[in-house]
From TrEMBL:
<dbReference type="InterPro" id="IPR005467">
    <property type="entry name" value="His_kinase_dom"/>
</dbReference>
<dbReference type="Pfam" id="PF00512">
    <property type="entry name" value="HisKA"/>
</dbReference>
<protein>
    <recommendedName>
        <fullName>histidine kinase</fullName>
        <ecNumber>2.7.13.3</ecNumber>
    </recommendedName>
</protein>
<keyword id="KW-0418">Kinase</keyword>
<keyword id="KW-0808">Transferase</keyword>
<keyword id="KW-0902">Two-component regulatory system</keyword>
<dbReference type="GO" id="GO:0005886">
    <property type="term" value="C:plasma membrane"/>
</dbReference>
<dbReference type="InterPro" id="IPR050736">
    <property type="entry name" value="Sensor_HK_Regulatory"/>
</dbReference>
<dbReference type="InterPro" id="IPR004358">
    <property type="entry name" value="Sig_transdc_His_kin-like_C"/>
</dbReference>
<dbReference type="InterPro" id="IPR036097">
    <property type="entry name" value="HisK_dim/P_sf"/>
</dbReference>
<keyword id="KW-0597">Phosphoprotein</keyword>
<keyword id="KW-0472">Membrane</keyword>
<dbReference type="GO" id="GO:0005524">
    <property type="term" value="F:ATP binding"/>
</dbReference>
<dbReference type="InterPro" id="IPR036890">
    <property type="entry name" value="HATPase_C_sf"/>
</dbReference>
<keyword id="KW-0547">Nucleotide-binding</keyword>
<dbReference type="Pfam" id="PF02518">
    <property type="entry name" value="HATPase_c"/>
</dbReference>
<dbReference type="InterPro" id="IPR003594">
    <property type="entry name" value="HATPase_dom"/>
</dbReference>
């Protein structure tokens, strides 16, 4: 990130600062080649403007600023930049904000004091630092908007008279919204903490029973059998968790590799559901597989094993958490205007249902509506997270409808393959929020 931002700012320095600024920037950052590569679009556009400035149209007088640019081209350049950019004058006023900056700072107005543009002490200190030292600086800050958002910014000095902004010196800021990056980092941190907790609990239990067996229970056959059974249960729980973690890791590693095998969705669904009849019987649940394989079903591009895993997860959850004496139906989904061009398989249970505030969290890693019940039934809290990632890879979606006391319906949706589809690129990746 810092290198990318530095590249933009070097390119801008080259554009607005003229040859002297370019030479200074090149010396500081290991030569013109670095500036050229790092500056990217900024450098290319700046070079084009310099050529234009050097070769004006015949008989067309042009007024140039101190950097050698025709007046007006500096603002035109900033206006076209995709990165949010603002310019602060030495008189402490906002003199310019390009459209990208206005998109994230809608309340900013030209002429206002810079401390009101971004109400963050780190930003104010960065402005003061650049004006005092004439050195580039970086800062990070948070702002409360519709929600808390996190930003990273890099500031550089614009010499007096450069960039169509008047005779005084200015500071130019490039601002980057890092909210999603911070959320991703937090998600990874939470994941490690949750995984550690999930492993630590059964491990502590096993160690405790081993210590007991080495002590006063050593000569007690009845206690030994009881403790060994509990230890086996806890070890199996750890094994399931490790297996799910490994599965999730493999899925994420192949997330950008689109599956290419042409599959009959109905055949895959029927095979997965039929394999769970013994589990349904064991849990006193009536499983009804309402999928006919006498005729071909919708064709999708997919990974057979992964789609089988999704369907097994959904049916397994419905059987385990629907409750004894309940019914689980697996059937083709009715067409939906929300998922045009897609075919679906619905898993419907008549269980207790899920509260509305919990539905959107079901695909979060380690989220459980009832943690104790989930662990008792062998759940790891990763099943629906795995389902989400598999469907993301397949450009699919997971629809969830549930109401307390009225059961739940989980529907997987997959794009129907056309004859021309052979590389798996059949739609956008689903966005699970």
């Amino acid at each position: 990130m810092a290198g990318e931002m530095k590249g933009w700012m070097l390119g801008l320095a080259a554009v607005f600062g003229g040859s002297a600024a370019l030479a200074s920037a090149s010396a500081e950052h290991s030569g013109p080649a670095v500036v050229l590569a790092a500056g990217g679009t900024a450098w290319a556009l700046g070079a084009a403007l310099r050529r234009r400035a050097a070769a004006p149209a015949p008989h067309t007088p042009q007024t140039k600023d101190r950097a050698g640019f025709p007046v007006g081209l500096g603002r035109a350049l900033l206006h076209q930049m995709p990165a949010p950019l603002i310019v602060i004058s030495q008189s402490e006023r906002l003199v310019y904000a390009n459209p990208a900056a206005m998109a994230i700072l809608p309340r900013a107005t030209v002429g206002m004091h810079y401390s009101g543009v971004i109400r963050a002490s780190a930003f104010v200190e960065a402005v003061e630092h650049v004006f005092e030292t004439r050195e580039d600086t970086e800062c990070t800050f948070a702002m409360m908007m519709e929600r808390e958002r996190f930003f990273e910014a890099r500031a550089s000095m614009l010499p007096a008279g450069a960039g169509d902004f008047g005779e005084e010196a200015h500071v130019i800021f490039q601002i980057e919204d890092r909210t999603r990056d911070k959320a991703s980092l937090q998600a990874r941190t939470d994941f490690v903490a949750n995984a550690s907790h999930e492993l630590r609990t059964p491990l502590a239990s096993i160690l405790g029973y081993i210590e007991t067996l080495q002590g006063h229970a050593k000569e007690d056959p009845e206690a030994r059998e009881l403790f060994l059974g509990i230890m086996m249960k806890q070890a199996s729980r750890m094994q399931r968790l490790v297996d799910d973690l490994m599965s999730l890791s493999r899925i994420e590693m192949n997330a950008h590799v689109r599956p290419e095998e042409r599959l009959d969705l109905h055949a895959v669904a029927a095979e997965a559901a039929n394999a769970l009849f013994p589990l349904a019987t064991q849990n006193d649940v009536l499983l009804q597989v309402e999928i006919s394989t006498d005729e071909p079903g919708p064709t999708v591009l997919g990974d057979r094993d992964q789609l089988n895993q999704v369907l097994v997860n959904l049916v397994d959850n419905a059987i385990k958490y629907g409750g004894q004496g309940q019914k689980v139906r697996v059937r083709p989904a009715d067409p939906s205007s929300k998922y045009p061009g897609q075919a679906g398989i619905s898993v419907i249970d008549t269980g207790p249902g899920i509260a509305r505030e919990n539905v959107h969290r079901l695909t979060e890693r380690f989220f459980r509506v009832n943690a104790g019940q989930s662990r008792d039934k062998g759940g790891t809290g990763l099943g629906l997270a795995i389902t989400k990632h598999i469907l993301n890879r397949h450009s699919g979606a997971l629809g969830i409808e549930s109401q307390p006391g009225h059961g739940s319906t989980f529907t997987l949706w997959l794009p129907v393959a056309n004859e021309a589809d052979s590389d798996g690129n059949v739609g956008k990746i689903a966005n699970f929020q």
